[in-house]
From TrEMBL:
UniProt domain CxC2-like cysteine cluster KDZ transposase-associated: residue ranges: 94-196
Name under which the protein is recorded: CxC2-like cysteine cluster KDZ transposase-associated domain-containing protein
Region (Disordered) residue spans: 923-962
InterPro entries, sorted: CxC2_KDZ-assoc (IPR041457), KDZ (IPR040521)
Species this protein is from: Pleurotus ostreatus (strain PC15)
Ranges of biased composition (kind: Acidic residues): 951-962
PANTHER family, A to Z: CXC1-LIKE CYSTEINE CLUSTER ASSOCIATED WITH KDZ TRANSPOSASES DOMAIN-CONTAINING PROTEIN, CXC2 DOMAIN-CONTAINING PROTEIN
Top-rank taxon: Eukaryota
Length: 962
């Protein structure tokens, strides 16, 4: 986030204000009175009569008489007027002075006047009452006369209330950029008019809401060129009002003529889509009747068809994720909420540029069911013609199963042509951390060829904007709610279009830097291995990329050491010993005795942790603690008898009067504090008498440390997944779901604390039993600050400086028994690192190619769209000349703005490409027209493209700014 740099003299300017504020206050007070007119209130215009009126909107503060005031405001009927009563200025209106607004002649007199009535006019300057007269010369209906005056009538029959275009536009912009609600804007306008609420005002909020719905849709229809289509508005196709992404591939618009026959570069023409669900955008069940203004014409799917589809699949279960461990949270917090018709919204965007897709949104009734997500995704792919499609979804590992089979149940026009199209499903880069190892390799962007540095997480930034509307849209009628969201997504897309110049420029910079850096890193790393090894690894990567059912080159080998593995090995050794005639001195084997001791130690730690919060426990909970203590003490005493058989030296330690385990001290010592005297817990001079058991404990402790470290990493992934889910779907939704999530946080953190204790205890024992062992280089001391990740924390530095905790860098433990026909453990570890390093370099090289292709596509799309608008100018025939003039002017204006945007993009991108030694062939087409916009950018100054990054992401202005 950029830090705002204030001018160096800002503080001195404020200090200067302190010396002048008394005078400034007097100047403000001066304006409340007659000012320069004290002693002379003659009209400043005619200089003949007394001036009693002043306008609060005009530049001049001079006093005018009634006649001059009316003459000056014949075309300014919405200015605010004040009258001097001899003591102070008081409110009055131009209507009270006798002003009448004549429609139909541009302010000129009308010979055929139809006397109208008093009209309530909402404007950015406040709420006004105006006498309106209509024109009968051309037999134009009153409603159209009002519209031609840029006043939008609240009703079309006998309008009494109108809203100026400026008023509607201002609210539209504030609503999109600042999420100002209609209620707040209405009240602000009312307070601007009469802050003391002394004058009677008839409520007009329902009229404002209804008018705003019509205004929004008319603007979307106009901007999509629907006024230019001879077939009319009703011929609007599904999703046609959506603003399209110019950087995505569009056949017949921005792709080469031979794109279908491309082989080596075919991946450059891939469409990337991201899918996600948001459970904050709910809708209350209020039984409101509503009129559908937008039947699937923009971003939401056609509601009637969608609901009919859902009825056919009402018994389909919700989607379950793979083995990621926040599934329980998902099911608990996103179920159908009583009192709500809609539990959330599913959305499809282009994953590279975050444009919301036409027909890419739909309401969710009861969570993320297959039937809902399938319908929305297939709707967003209507008329899809490309050969390669990548779908990013946080539960793609499950959703992708049988996707093609399920799509066969849909109408033919919605079914993807799998004979021509290859579909890959992946999990977004951040969300994949919550999945198991299988998903983290097979569904990873990192290991998928042809995706560049696409992350799939941009959809979260879309939610961050729309979530600000939750309080208002959940109260709306169903259609009004969908229209509001459609409008905001349209605004979002437009801002993305405007900022595409800067976003692609930044991606180019990042790709150039990192493709060189990562390629060099891989080249250096690659030289450290024998060519035969590199060839074998390279073939393994290629084979897996062709068929992911084979051995994965990126898959981390699980630790060869687990408690159960060691237990099995020791049991086999004891079996071999018994076959050779060596019998155990106790019916409980030595390995089981030692394992039982470690289990008792684990129970002691768990009980000690639980006892830390005894002060907050209820009597029932305290009783349960005591019962656990008694049970644990009994188990220790039972185990002690076996211990004395295998470790006779412990008898001396138990007899010591200073020992907590002494019979005299046991009654005063809590069970969790009793020393167990495992081999690692006895004096060093006694170790030689129990060396066999000490060796067994080393093996158990190594497995215990590995288990503990792996468990910490697993639970940290769970914690991050739960946190992200809470942030996106639960925060702000009420106490109950937040409390439920909080309890899960506490539970996971408690598990992590226990695992950390287990790891530290294992390492402490190993330091005693095997201080010079091979484990020393791998297993390090675990500090509290090391328990972090995956990824950077909120307080950590940026990614470029980020250093992960050592717990994520520990190589797998070496196998104790290695099959000589298999790859050695060390070799396999290095192969994994080699493959990951290669994938990282490959993805950055792809990103550099993709960004250049996206620049080319963007320019070609803008040129095509500009030509398209020019073609619209004369499509409609047999229409009034005034309408024809408007159609032509608007189409040509849109074309001119698009060409200006194209030229500005050329001026920014081409010098940046040239400065980095990149000269793709398509640049020659634009080189002659390239300006010098990028000079300041290359010199480190602030170019227009960089300044664009400071704009908001969600405001919405038309290409024209009327």
């Amino acid at each position: 986030m950029a830090i705002t740099q204030f001018p160096p003299r800002s503080h001195s300017q404020l200090e200067e204000y302190l010396t002048l504020r008394s005078i400034a206050l007097d100047e403000l007070i001066r304006l409340e009175g007659l000012g320069d007119h004290v002693g002379d209130t003659t009209c400043v215009n005619c200089a003949e009569t007394e001036g009693l009126f002043r306008c609060m909107c005009c530049q001049s503060n001079g006093l005018s008489c009634t006649g001059c005031t009316l003459a000056q405001h014949g075309l300014l009927p919405l200015h605010r007027i004040e009258r001097w009563n001899g003591k102070l200025f008081e409110h009055t209106t131009l209507k009270d002075l006798g002003l009448r607004v004549q429609l139909g002649h541009g302010g000129n007199p009308c010979r055929n006047v139809q006397i109208g009535s008093v009209m309530t006019v909402f404007d950015t300057s406040g709420i006004h009452t105006v006498h309106v007269d209509y024109c009968l010369c051309k037999n134009v209906a009153r409603r159209w006369q009002l519209l031609r005056n840029r006043w939008f009538p609240a009703s079309f029959d006998r309008p009494r209330t109108v809203f100026t275009f400026a008023f509607l536009d201002q609210f539209h912009e504030l609503n999109l950029q600042g999420k100002i609600t209609l209620y707040d804007y209405y009240l602000a306008t009312s307070h601007l008019t009469d802050n003391m609420e002394l004058r009677k005002q008839t409520p007009r909020r329902p009229e404002f809401h209804r008018t705003m719905r019509m205004w929004r849709q008319l603007q979307m229809l106009k901007r999509a060129g629907r006024a230019h289509d001879p077939s009319g508005i009703q011929a609007t196709r599904q999703g046609q009002l959506a603003i399209e992404c110019p950087a995505c591939p569009h056949p017949d618009r921005n792709l080469p003529l031979d794109w279908e026959s491309a082989t080596r570069d075919a991946w450059l023409y891939t469409l990337f889509l991201a899918i996600d669900a948001n459970f904050k955008l709910k809708s209350k069940s209020r039984g409101l009747e509503d009129v559908e203004l937008d039947p699937g014409w923009s971003y939401f799917v056609n509601d009637a068809r969608y609901k009919a589809h859902l009825l056919k699949h009402s018994d389909q279960p919700e989607i379950n994720t793979c083995r990621n461990e926040h599934d329980a949270i998902l099911r608990a917090t996103t179920r159908h909420t009583p009192g709500y018709d809609v539990s959330g919204v599913a959305l499809v965007i282009c994953a590279r540029h975050a444009f919301v897709r036409g027909n890419g949104a739909g309401d969710l009734e009861k969570g993320e069911r297959y039937c809902s997500i399938d319908y929305i995704v297939l709707s967003a792919l209507l008329a899809f013609q490309l050969r390669l499609l990548v779908l990013s979804y946080d539960i793609a590992c499950q959703w992708s199963k049988n996707l093609i089979k399920r799509s066969a149940e849909y109408p033919a026009e919605m079914q993807p042509d799998t004979s021509q199209t290859s579909i890959k499903c992946v999990v977004p880069r951040w969300h994949i951390e919550g999945h198991d190892q299988f998903c983290q390799t097979r569904f990873s962007f990192n290991y998928t060829p042809g995706v560049g540095k696409t992350c799939g997480e941009d959809i979260e930034s879309t939610w961050s904007v729309s979530n600000q509307m939750t309080a208002s849209i959940r109260e709306m009628a169903p259609s009004a709610r969908r229209e509001a969201l459609n409008d905001h997504w349209s605004g979002w897309n437009f801002r993305k279009l405007v900022k595409l110049r800067s976003s692609l420029l930044q991606r180019l910079k990042d790709a150039c830097t990192n493709s060189i850096r990562q390629t060099d890193i891989f080249a250096q790393f690659n030289t450290t291995f024998r060519p035969a090894v590199v060839a074998r690894w390279g073939k393994m990567v290629e084979d897996w990329e062709r068929d992911k059912r084979g051995k994965c080159p990126y898959k981390e080998t699980p630790s060869a050491l687990t408690i159960h593995d060691v237990q099995l090995e020791l049991a086999k050794e004891e079996m071999e010993a018994s076959k050779s005639g060596r019998t155990s001195i106790h019916r409980t084997s030595a390995s089981k005795f030692l394992l039982h001791g470690l289990n008792l130690e684990e129970k002691q730690r768990a009980l000690a942790r639980d006892c830390l919060s005894q002060e907050k426990m209820s009597p029932k909970e305290l009783a349960e603690i005591e019962q656990r203590r008694n049970t644990l003490l009994h188990d220790i005493m039972t185990w002690r008898a076996i211990q004395l058989a295998y470790m006779p030296c412990v008898a001396t330690l138990l007899a010591s009067p200073d020992s907590l385990a002494n019979a005299d001290n046991t009654s005063h010592t809590s069970a969790e504090q009793l020393p167990l005297f495992l081999p690692s817990g006895i004096p060093s001079e006694a170790l030689s008498t129990v060396q066999v058991h000490a060796n067994n404990e080393i093996r158990y402790r190594l497995a215990q440390a590995e288990d503990g470290l792996a468990g910490i990493r697993r639970q940290r992934r769970v914690l991050h997944s739960v946190y992200q889910f809470k942030k996106l779907n639960v925060s702000g939704t009420g106490n109950k779901p937040n409390t439920r999530i909080r309890s899960v946080f506490d539970k996971v953190n408690k598990k992590i604390a226990g695992l950390a204790q287990r790891y530290r205890a294992a390492c402490a024992a190993l330091l005693i039993l095997d201080p010079q062992g091979t484990w020393v280089g791998r297993l390090r001391e675990l500090a509290d600050g090391d328990i972090r990740g995956p990824g950077r924390e909120g307080s950590d530095p940026r990614n470029s400086y980020f250093e992960p905790s050592w717990i994520w860098l520990v190589a797998p433990a070496p196998n104790t028994d290695v099959d000589e026909t298999q790859e050695p453990a060390f070799d396999e570890t290095m192969r994994i690192e080699w493959a990951k390093t290669k994938a990282r370099a490959d993805r950055w090289v792809e990103e550099l190619q993709l960004v250049q292709e996206e620049m080319r596509r963007s320019l070609q799309f803008l040129a095509w769209k500009a030509d398209w608008w020019c073609e619209q100018a004369t499509r409609r025939g047999n229409i009034p000349p005034a309408v024809s003039s408007g159609l032509s002017a608007y189409a040509l204006k849109q074309a001119s703005f698009l060409r200006a945007l194209l030229q500005d993009s050329v001026d920014i991108w081409l010098p940046a490409l040239s400065a980095r030694g990149l000269t793709p062939s398509w640049t020659t087409k634009y080189s002659a027209n390239s300006g010098s916009r990028s000079s300041s950018e290359e010199d480190g100054g602030t170019s227009d493209s960089e300044a664009l990054r400071d704009d908001g992401d969600d405001g919405y202005v038309d290409y024209d700014s009327d």
